[in-house]
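Good day; I would like, with your permission, to put a structural problem before you. What I wish to show you is a protein chain and, alongside it, a tokenised description of its three-dimensional fold. Here, with my thanks, is the record as I have it:
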Amino acid sequence: MTVGERVRAVVAQTFNIPVEAVDDATTPAAVAAWDSLGQLALVNALEQEFAIEFVLEDIARMNSVREIRSIVETRDAVHH
């Protein structure tokens, strides 16, 4: 699985939506459960999935699946 596929799977699982409904353009506005608490759950799930820890600036930038994938790829590259 690519990083993008893994990110989409985590988003879908966290918000209990079909993975087919998640793409790079998916934003909090499109997902009812993606509120501030949902964001925390998503960050936690992503940290577990990728075994990385996000800094506050990363979390603040997580406003779309595309941005999350970009952040994860950057963090992942730092750890490997």
Notes: The chain has one domain: 3-79.
